[in-house]
Amino acid sequence: MPGFEVFGEEEKKQINDVLDTGVLFRYEFNEQRNNVFKVLEFEKNFASYCGAGYAQAVTSGTAALKVALMALGVGPGDEVITQGFTFVATWEAILDVGAIPVFTEVDETLNMDPADLKTKITAKTACIIPVHMLGAMARVEEIVAIADEHNIPVLEDTAQAAGGRINGQHLGTFGDCGTFSFDSVKTMTTGEGGMIITNDEKMWRNMSEYQDHGHDHAVNPGGRGGEGRSFIGFNYRMMELQGAIGIAQLAKLDSMIAAQKEHKKQLRLAASAIPGVTFRTLVDEEGDTATFFAFILESKEHCQRVSAVLADEGVGAINFSENSWHFYPSWEHLLDGSTLTASGYPFAEPGGKKRVIYDPKILPQSADIMSRTLVYPVSIKMSSEQLQKMCDALKKAANV
Ligand SMILES: *Cc1c(COP(=O)(O)O)cnc(C)c1O
Prior knowledge:
Aspartate Aminotransferase, domain 1; alpha/beta; single chain; 12 helices
């Protein structure tokens, strides 16, 4: 949630650097721009922060997924495995490149279950996308090991976990690439925006060209008229104002994470009073980025009773099995195969033959876990009164 909470003079200063030149475009205008290249600088800072070789900025986290899938060569005829608890963007991007999303169960990390992943791999699997949901890491090392056995690339959807680490190594650097979102509710925000990081120079180069109509950027930035094109692209370019905000927000990321962590600690202590409660499994507690606090009850009924108490106390928690944006059985447009395309593509072939039909009941383990899990968003500037109110409500919920 938090990036916008800490907007301040730093963001304004960065934006003013851009407004002073009047150049909002990331390429060209070399005379007018007075050597201000905010998107390029944001990319460099972000790659360096994550310990990645290269970073490519784009217009959104959804675009980042699409650009990364294109650069991995994923397309029609391919299957891409991701988890059934994610944001709709993950599977939208897969369908948008013409591939078919295949969903795995989540385990108590609330992320991809590696055991179930093994059962979902086929000869058609072209990419595996673990998602680091709600700011906490998937079992990405296990997932990469499984993928390596089959020679399948891993794309980490790190949209919600900028700054997260496992043993000091940044999320997004375990797989072949990692994608990030800076939309208005993500840990750090540029309003809209996204980034892809990778250590593969060739992959970065292809992404850089693809997100800019295929321009080869032989001289980057500049010389657009004379640039060649080796393949067709599209426009997913980030603009300078977003790059400027990103520079300021990135500089605040570690302090934002630290503030959230402190709040989460207190919520966890209070929730510990609830009989039978367990907490989401964190692969590395130290590296958890804590945008949300998740706790798991023993049964759905108990979870509903606890949830009712919290709501009565004016501090209702989220149950993602009831939320329509993030959990597989709630995606009616996916389950129904709804599209604006007259032919029914990507759910149907031209001619009407179904390419894929989704059954809402295929993820029973996820459905069970999600039905017992409650989640609080954790903001940075939570007042001590609000935090106390939540802690008091959790303690009260220990008696139902
Ligand atoms: C937010 C989000 C995205 C998409 O990012 P946008 O910038 O909103 O397009 C993708 N994946 C996950 C898991 C997200 O939470």
